[in-house]
Amino acid sequence: MTARQQWTIVLGIVALLAVLLAAATHFLGDELFPVSVGSAAPPMEATTLDGAPRAKTLRDYEGKVVLLNVWATWCEPCKVEMPSIERLHREFGPRGLAVVAVSVDDAGMEKRITTFARELGITFEVLHDPTRTTSRNYQITGYPETFIIGREGTIRKKVIGAADWSSAANRALIRELLGPVTASR
Prior knowledge:
The chain is α/β, with parallel strands linked by helices. It is built from five helices and seven strands.
């Protein structure tokens, strides 16, 4: 066997391994790269519900601690936890907490989403992702699912299901991530 034939075989094996690795990453991506505490926050893209809808991403919240809540209007546990998220937002929003609630309701449900938010007295940002891209990127297994993302873009907490976000433990975590309050002079 000549050197050229040997190199052809080696390159063929390397190419085959590359194809297998690409296929494994595509088909087993969730298992190979789970979204969990300590991992970098995946991309998020959803649309505002105001008069001139525009796309928003995590970059829009750069430098802030983010509470990313993925929910739907038809989800009863989502409705139950929203008031505690609102309390957390009112307490820590002025200190740099960005609360972003991404609805996965179907396209055309914008009015229902805004009515839902208004009825619950929600003042934090509510976005819409009818394509559920955020759900796929964050490997959502049910609704609601919430992620606390540190200023550096790392997931610091993940909660599947409804939680009391105004509890002492959750408030302490947010307080820690935001850092000390500086006194104004």
